[in-house]
Design a protein that fits this description.
Length: 281
Amino acid sequence: MSCVKRSKNESFHEAISYQNLLNNTDFFNNDFVDFYKIKYLVDTLNIEGFIVKPNQNKTEKLPAIIFCRGGNQSFGMLNGYQLRMMGNLSAEGYVVLGSQLRGNMASEGVDEFGGKDLNDILKLIEIAKELDFVDEKNIHILGYSRGGMNTYQISKLTDNINSIAVVGAPTNKFESIKFRESMYHQVYKPLFGDTITNKEAYFKRSAVYWHKEINEPILILHGTDDNRVAVEEAKQLIDSLKISGKTDFSYKLFEGGNHTLSNFADERDSLIINWFKTHSK
């Protein structure tokens, strides 16, 4: 089935209220892909996002990757560096969609760090499924850091994804507090409450406690020198998956790898692309 051709100024989807081609700037100069900034509506909020797609004139529908950002609020927002990462993934033949999420200088609302902001990701999946150049049967999710936590959470909420991959993802918020106590006071407590009266909120953000509900194939990548999320969190989830008998998962712990594995970028990206290709229909 061939795709419907649209002009580069025409919106890809009715839920997208604003769309702007960003090519031919210092940050967006990949000859093989087109970068679009978008605004889309979620829960009456205007959310900023991006769509990156190969620019070759092909008619077949392409697989998609939902790229889940790290950080919180305005820290860790998708920037030129991360968009270049998305561009590299798109150059491999994928449509890549990413959200700034709610509650920062680009999007309305309040960041709940794994609360209602999950709706911003779910809406991107919905949009991806309905884009006329995306193969709705081949949608994957890639999450870095907080985005990895969100990726695990999203896997519980939808059956519209083929596989997931995470890099430097937290899996146990109680362990996160021990490793970086400052995160509790500066991020967790202000955004979703304390561990006493809001204990359940910490469980909801900790995949190790509900790993059996993750049905998709999982690729876990983590660096042993990660100074933001302890590698022990990845190990806890890996051990739990093994004990529960899950077979469709793989992992690699990079000796000396940093938080985003930028010091192993080529191998990281190769593993991710191969994982998604292996689990495409």
